[in-house]
Amino acid sequence: MTDIFDNKILCKLCDKEMMKFGVIKDGFKLRALRCEKCEEIIIHPEDKIEYQNFKNLKRKNYNVKLRIVGNSYAVSIPKEIVNFINDHEKKMDEMVKLCFEDFNKISLNFN
Asked: What is the chain's alpha carbon radius of gyration, rounded to the nearest angstrom?
């Protein structure tokens, strides 16, 4: 199946060909088209849906248990977050970075 953005797309306002470019929102990369004449922007429909899914996950708060495993503590990561990352990064089998950012704040980076 071909992607709609692989075709020539004309601006609905000024009938000029739109140019491809990328937009980054909240660290999320979106494919887009922009008309250089009138500055009209179209975000790729699939990317728009995925970004909305990302925003929905970002708003959720999860209550997870802190468990002792050997000499360390473990926190479970909800499956829907892991599935979302797997769909986009394909890097869940690698090591992750853990950082103590501030009092009461730990960050976990997957790439």
From this structure: 20
pTM above 0.85, yes or no: no
Tens digits of per-residue pLDDT, 72-81? 999 888 888 8
Regarding beta strands 19-25 and 28-34, do their DSSP bridges make them parallel or antiparallel, or are they unpaired? antiparallel
For the chain, the three-class secondary structure string (H helix, E strand, C coil) is CCCHHHCCCECCCCCCECEEEEEEECCEEEEEEECCCCCCEEECHHHHHHHHHHHHHHHCCCCCCEEEECCEEEECCCHHHHHHHHHHHCCCCCCCEEEEEECCEEEEECC
Domain boundaries, the chain: 1-59, 61-111
Class in CATH terms, 1-59: alpha beta
